């Protein structure tokens, strides 16, 4: 076989040397280049996966935050509407109460004014009655004095005063 290799121009010691060189080169490249490159690629792949996971988590958190924000805003709107409705109801109740109080106060004032007017009317009536009584007494006395005696004229004056008082009571 060595003849066959020699005829073909193949030298076995060169092939063995090349094989040894290849094995040394393979182990050196594998140890110094291939493993570090694979290690860097593995770390890079892990970093990319980790970043992708973090990104997904952040996106989920962002979506949750958006949902929470919308919920909080909806709750705030609902609470604001409740507050506005309560304020409107309170304002209406206050308005009704103030109107009622004003009506009651007005009724009291009207009643007091009517009482005062009635008292004033009664007072004036009494004054007028006294004045008219006195005037009637004087008039009757002057007219009747000449025609009747003193006792009869006093009786006529009293009757006239009673008639005036009776007419005033009927009014």
UniProtKB/TrEMBL annotation:
Family recorded in the similarity comment: Belongs to the ATPase B chain family.
Domain of life: Bacteria
A GO term for molecular function: proton-transporting ATP synthase activity, rotational mechanism
Pfam families from the UniProt entry: ATP-synt_B
The entry's keywords: ATP synthesis, Cell membrane, CF(0), Coiled coil, Hydrogen ion transport, Ion transport, Membrane, Transmembrane, Transmembrane helix, Transport
Subcellular location: Cell membrane; Endomembrane system
Annotated GO CC locations: endomembrane system; plasma membrane; proton-transporting ATP synthase complex
General function of this protein: F(1)F(0) ATP synthase produces ATP from ADP in the presence of a proton or sodium gradient. F-type ATPases consist of two structural domains, F(1) containing the extramembraneous catalytic core and F(0) containing the membrane proton channel, linked together by a central stalk and a peripheral stalk. During catalysis, ATP synthesis in the catalytic domain of F(1) is coupled via a rotary mechanism of the central stalk subunits to proton translocation.
UniProt KW Transmembrane helix keyword: yes
Keyword Ion transport: yes
Coiled-coil residue spans: 48-127
InterPro entries documented for this protein: ATP_synth_b/b'su_bac/chlpt, ATP_synthase_B_chain
Recorded topology in the membrane: Single-pass membrane protein
Name used for this protein in its record: ATP synthase subunit b
């Amino acid at each position: 076989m060595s003849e066959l290799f020699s005829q073909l121009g193949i030298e076995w010691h060169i092939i063995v040397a090349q094989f040894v060189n290849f094995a040394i080169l393979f182990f050196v490249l594998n140890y110094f280049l291939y493993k570090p490159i694979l290690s860097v690629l593995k770390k890079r792949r892990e970093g990319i996966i980790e970043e992708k996971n973090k990104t997904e988590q952040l996106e989920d958190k962002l979506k949750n935050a958006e949902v929470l924000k919308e919920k909080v805003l909806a709750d705030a709107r609902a609470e604001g509407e409740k507050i506005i409705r309560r304020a409107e109801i309170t304002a209406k109740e206050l308005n009704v109460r103030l109107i009622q109080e004003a009506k009651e106060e007005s009724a009291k004032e009207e009643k007091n004014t009517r009482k005062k007017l009635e008292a004033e009317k009664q007072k004036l009536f009494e004054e007028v009655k006294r004045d008219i009584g006195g005037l009637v007494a004087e008039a009757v006395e002057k007219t009747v004095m000449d025609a009747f005696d003193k006792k009869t004229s006093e009786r006529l004056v009293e009757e006239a005063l009673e008639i005036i008082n009776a007419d005033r009571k009927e009014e």
